[in-house]
Design brief:
Length: about 250
Amino acid sequence: MDLGNAIDAEAEERIVWSTTRLYLSVLEAFPKHVQDFQTKWRSWQETISPQDASAWDDSAPSFKALTALGPKIIPLVIYQLAFNPTPSTALHLYSTLDPNPSDLPRSTPTTTPSSHAEQILLQAFTRNRAARDALANWTEHCERVSRHSSLPMYTECTEYDELLALGPAIVPHVMLQYAKDVKAQSDGVVSASGIGRGVLFWYELLHELVWGRKTGVRTVVFGEMYEGWKEWFDEGEWEGAPRFGRQEEAY
């Protein structure tokens, strides 16, 4: 990736590192997720000419199969933007997926695909850092209140609200932490980040990021809850995410 005169070499190196690190982390933790994306990505690429955007059909089954995956594939699309020699297709897919179109850098008649991609890469880098800091802040909060069993102690706080404000694009970041903490528990470690009971409530954050509200469930089998979210993240469509209503009391 060459960002030209947009930023200095040191900043470019940080962006490349951040993009690559997130991609490799997702690949290591959720290989099925990456494989599913790559299969659908190749299928779409085989049906279009990357150099002729005017001929792209957003209603084509291969493209709809990608967009149906929703914001959870954004880090994989960002990786394509960074390292694909023809970023136009990744740029188009990202513009379709972005859950906050008002925040998306806009192209102009004089904007080239590569310079537009640079703006989005910078935006993604900023989001990655914000997600990292917000996740750390919430885990620290959960540690402070870990003696409590009441869910609102963990989710009705500024730290939780800061994560929600980052929007659905951070679902992959949350899934990575969720997987890390579940593994730590299965290995007999109290928690992956020093937190106690709060390690179990990633599902509430995911549910609110996807559906805009908490689960409302009263009884949870935590292992089964994680497996449900993992199965969805690996190969499910966005609209197929685990969904709970007030009438549902157990999972």
